[in-house]
């Protein structure tokens, strides 16, 4: 699995996490929405399309995010551990 390096963190997109865990599309996103103790800037980074259009386009072209993704959430290692705990 190729990390997306962002602000000095190794991160993964929802698509990467779905694929890594053998989950159906959207499963990680739904789990993310339910996990209330995630902290932006520590557990994840939210990248709005208006500010990160070039990077998002490149990630889409590389297959790192879902083709229909507009805004992107990148999950850090710490965030991934929290998602694993919340998921079961």
Strand content: 15-25%
Number of DSSP-assigned strands? 4
Average pLDDT reading: 96
Q: Considering DSSP H and I runs of 4 or more, what fraction of the residues is helical?
A: 40-55%
**Rg, Cα atoms, Å:** 12 Å
Unreliable spans are: none
Please indicate the count of domains. Answer: 1
- Can you count the helices? 4
What strand line-up does the widest sheet have?
1-2-4-3
Structural class of the secondary elements?
A: alpha+beta
Helix-strand topology string: EEHHEHEH
Taken from the alpha-carbon principal axes, the silhouette is: globular
Main beta sheet? 4 strands, antiparallel
Structure description:
The structure is a single chain. The protein is α+β, with helices and mostly antiparallel strands and 88 residues long. The protein has one domain (9-87). It is 44% helix and 18% strand. It is built from 4 helices and 4 strands; from the N terminus they run E-E-H-H-E-H-E-H. A 4-stranded antiparallel beta sheet has the order 1-2-4-3. Strand 1 and strand 2 (9-13) form a beta hairpin. The radius of gyration is 12 Å and the shape is globular. The protein starts with a strand and ends with a helix. The relative contact order is 0.24. The mean pLDDT is 96.
């Amino acid at each position: 699995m190729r990390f997306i390096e962002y602000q000095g963190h190794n991160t993964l997109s929802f698509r990467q996490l779905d694929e890594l865990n053998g989950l159906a599309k959207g499963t990680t996103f739904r789990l993310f929405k339910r996990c209330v103790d995630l902290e932006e800037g520590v557990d994840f980074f939210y990248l709005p399309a208006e500010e990160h259009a070039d990077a998002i386009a490149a990630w889409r072209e590389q297959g790192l995010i879902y083709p229909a993704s507009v805004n992107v959430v990148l999950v850090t290692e710490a965030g991934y551990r929290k998602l694993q705990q919340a998921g079961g």
